Amino acid sequence: MAVRTWRPERDRHVLVVLDTGRTAAGRVGDAPRLDTSMDATLLLAAVASRAGDRVDLLAHDRRVRATVRGRSAQDVLPSFVAAMAPLEAELVEADARGLATTALHIAGHRSLVVLFTGLETSAVEEGLMPVLSLLTRRHTVVVASVADPRVEEMARSRGSVDAVYEAGAASRTLNERRTTADRLRRHGVVVVDAVPGVLASQVVDAYLSLKASGRL
Homologous superfamily of 13-147+189-212 in CATH? Predict the structure, then answer.
């Protein structure tokens, strides 16, 4: 009896969306959040294109900042690098509806949409949540966000009165972030919230897990 070996489907479509608005400007460690997101974008593009999937790019805040579409596996990384090289975060609130509408135009068929954006409660509640169903209705959506390890450290500090107050504020920030992530998950979104050193690998792990489960 022949044994059939299952392999993940190839030629799926992955759209990476970089929110280049205000939340991408904040520095975590030595780099802006946008730089960390771009590093993760390159690793994801390399892995996905090698796996036989098509990878496109959209960078957007109030308007489109960059796009890469329809590149071959050999051209994806050079094209992404060239498109992202001039990008800087703009100190404006991102137009979430414009971002979602543009993403839908690029991803006409079922796709994996990986959105690098902030998990700040106000930005998500007022910006992303009202338009999220536009994306999740047709696509599998991953929201990836750069977490600040200093906030975790502050939440644990108890060395002085000031440290206790800082710990309380940091704990509230973490709780709000977890609540926002949980709300996104209830809407079917895969959330990756990770510090800079592991964000790229965790985004790739999420992609590989979704691909293996046939959700692309």
Answer: von Willebrand factor, type A domain (3.40.50.410)
